[in-house]
Specification:
mainly alpha
């Protein structure tokens, strides 16, 4: 079954002409590029925090070495490595949580509208032409919902004319 879906996808993907593929990739670029830009910004922010903490640890280590106190040198290295590992963990954990949260919130704009759209299509199939789809502003399928609402109005008008 999965093999059939992959074959169909591959056939559809490679049968498109180059202009169509380019146009498909560039549909609503602001919406398509938003999630990668958010994730890139989050990565840069958390990376900057990690670099800052690593640089602080290295500065303290060099200060200890320059003071020429060899008995504290081993203790200082162990302390700095421990602190760096702890700070790295404290930066990585929120990074993972924030990245997951942004991805879930952003992907909800694409997955969330599927439920009302399916309900509306089911109502249309059952002959209820008074049904309308109401999506949140900015949802991915806002234009599709408007088109379906117009279709429902047209079907209702034709039903009245009969």
């Amino acid at each position: 079954m999965a093999s059939l879906r992959f074959d169909r996808w591959r056939r559809d993907f490679f049968s498109l002409n180059p202009q169509r593929k380019t146009k498909s990739y560039l549909l609503q670029p602001s919406r398509q590029l938003r999630l990668p830009l958010y994730l890139l910004g989050i990565t840069v922010g958390f990376g900057a925090l990690w670099i800052h903490s690593a640089a602080s640890a290295i500065r303290e280590l060099y200060t200890a070495v320059e003071s020429a106190q060899p008995r504290y040198f081993d203790a200082m290295i162990q302390s700095q490595l421990h602190d760096l590992a702890l700070v790295s963990l404290l930066i990585a954990l929120p990074y993972v949580l924030v990245t997951i949260a942004v991805a879930v919130v952003h992907s909800h704009q694409y997955v969330g509208p599927a439920i009302p759209l399916r309900r509306h299509l089911e109502a249309l199939k059952n002959g209820d032409y008074s049904s309308r789809v109401q999506l949140r502003r900015g949802d991915a399928f806002e234009e599709v919902a408007q088109d379906l609402n117009e279709l429902a109005a047209l079907l209702a008008d034709r039903e009245k004319q009969r």
